[in-house]
Amino acid sequence: MGRHSRGTTAGDITAVSVPTLVGIDGLDTPDFRDIAHRYAALVEFAAAGHLVALDASAELTTALGPFLAR
User: Which sequence spans correspond to the domains of the chain?
Assistant: First the structure.
């Protein structure tokens, strides 16, 4: 497997210069949540597991509306 096939990047995530909405699920492990908080302002989906679009579709739609309208 190559480096990129595992989802890693060569760049620094803080260098992203476009508006980015980051969502985390409330049911994920604490270490993953801590890592996510280091990199971005987040929208938390408290009742969702890893598949936010399936577990919390209404909440995701509510979060995406204002973000996409900017």
Answer: 23-70
